[in-house]
Amino acid sequence: MTDRVVAAFDFDGTITTSDSFRAFMLDAAGPARFALAALRCLPWLAGIAPGWSDRGRTKARFLRAALGNVRREALEAAAQRFVETRLPDLLRPEMLARIREHQALGHEVVLVSASPSIYLRKWAPGVGIDTVLASELAWREGVYTGQLAGKNCWGPEKVARLRGWWGEHAPATLYAYGDSRGDREMAELANYAWIRGEAPLPALAPQGGFAPA
Predict the structure, then answer these.
(1) Going by DSSP bridges, is the β-strand pair 137-140/143-148 parallel, antiparallel, or unpaired?
(2) What does the pLDDT look like over 110-138, one tens digit per residue?
(3) Fewest beta carbons within 10 Å, which of 83, 91, 138, 206?
(4) What count of other Cβ atoms lies within 10 Å of the Cβ of residue 190?
């Protein structure tokens, strides 16, 4: 499809006002277990910013420290509760409006996030997003293993996931929306990229380009 237009949205800090994974874990584990897990994982958490710790492994380790050998059905239930009760307060109305703008123009909207898909896939259908490319948790016999299934969906992995998703049917136009270093490669791939804090959110033109200011 030569006129295919895709709009790829990061989630945390782009669609939300803050880190949804932290909020999800606080809701799922409770304050006491969350704090204890943070203390146990402090060396790895502190090592993320300077690049000493692997983001994906640290995320997986923290989830295991906070929730232990959690069963999938229990975490699915926690994810549903989070989406219904806590996540709505974190959403940016202007970004939800931007998603609707793309959809009204017939563009395909895809969520591309380093956060776990377990709650993103419950949220996305409610705003008309069919495709979620995100970090996946690993399970064994219905119990969380403490690891990710595959790579953390951050940085270069976002581009790999997008390319794997569209395969031989690359879009004629790609929009990318992000807010951090983890979105740089996706922004570089896009025809039109917007990074929070670098420019105002522009208007969309019907033909697929940004409208002039």
Answers:
(1) antiparallel
(2) 999 999 999 999 999 999 999 999 999 99
(3) 206
(4) 22
Spatial distance between the Cα atoms of 163 and 157, rounded to a whole number of angstroms: 10
Q: In this structure, what DSSP letter does residue 205 have?
A: P
Asked whether the beta carbons of 116 and 136 are under 8 A apart, the reply is: yes
Name the token pair of 198.
């670098």
> Looking at the 3D structure of the chain, how many domains does it have?
1
DSSP, collapsed to helix, strand or coil, labels residue 50 as: coil
Q: Is residue 212 part of a domain?
A: no
Structural domain including 110 reads 5-195
Supply angle C-alpha 127, 129, 134, rounded to 5: 120
d(CA 24, CA 156): 25
Q: 67: which 2 tokens?
A: 């929730």
- pLDDT on residue 44: 64
Name which of 145, 198, 174 is nearest 14 in CA terms: 198
Please give the single-letter amino acid code of residue 150: G
